[in-house]
Fold this sequence. Notes:
The chain is of the alpha+beta class. It has helices at about 1-25, 105-110, 150-155, 170-175, 265-280; strands spanning about 55-60, 65-70, 75-80, 85-95, 120, 130-135, 140, 190, 195-200, 205-210, 215-220, 225-230, 245-250. The chain has one domain. A six-stranded antiparallel sheet has the order 1-13-3-11-6-5. The longest helix is centred in the first third of the chain and has 25 residues, at about 1-25. About 45% of the residues are buried.
Amino acid sequence: MALEIDNMGRREVLGSVGRARSDARGRATTSEWMPYIPASGAPCPPEGVAPDALTWSETVAPGGYTQLRVARGTRIRLEDPTGDACASVIVLNAVNPSERLNVADSQKIPWQAYMTTNHPLLSGDGRVLATLLDDTSGRHDAFCGSSSEAWNRAKYGDGTPESASPAGSALLAMAGAKHGLTRRDLPPAVTFFQGVRVEDDGSFRWLGSAGAGTHIDLLAELPLIVLIANAPHPRDPREDYIVGPLRVSAWSSAPTEPGDDAFVASPERERAYRNSIAYAALAGM
């Protein structure tokens, strides 16, 4: 009798699991904000790039974030399809994450505060982590960083990641946590697709977006951890929390080499690129 009861109970449990599995599979959906796996299945591959060549393809939601490790020589395209994307980006050496983006050196070494094509993103160790290529926007910012939770709380009423108005810094912290990084490990970000300029009196002049359909490419000069938050720029004058989707794609390419335009732009840049090449050679990359 006891055995019969046990068997009946087992059948009930198995039947319950089966119903739960069927229900879960029946609810499976796709979203317009998602990574595409495999990347070759992306609906909007970059022009001129074969879908089978893609190693990463994703649409980041407004108020969302993403992260990935990429190999040296990976080319990463960020696209602003609506004109309202705002990509706050941090890059770190994937082999040694204590080597990370240094915004001040990224302005000082190239003798240029405003980022555009062939602009290097440097670490504090004097190496180029990534190079900005193929910039069709020209509206970027390396001064203000991403929005803070306190800033968003004062402007929108909340800045936590789970709110309707998450701050860029909070989203970057969540992205970094996927790689065992804490807030203390994350430097100030650079921001793409929403620009500012510095006036003679030191104040910021808001440029905003160049419009829909622009893109930039980032070329990984070392293996990288790439963290991206898609949240409104802290200097955006609009009262509402406005940000559009961000498309991210990546494919294998080749790092900058001696003789390339970015490499020979100045003696300081050449030294930084040679530092990256030497590091990669010693590490067998």
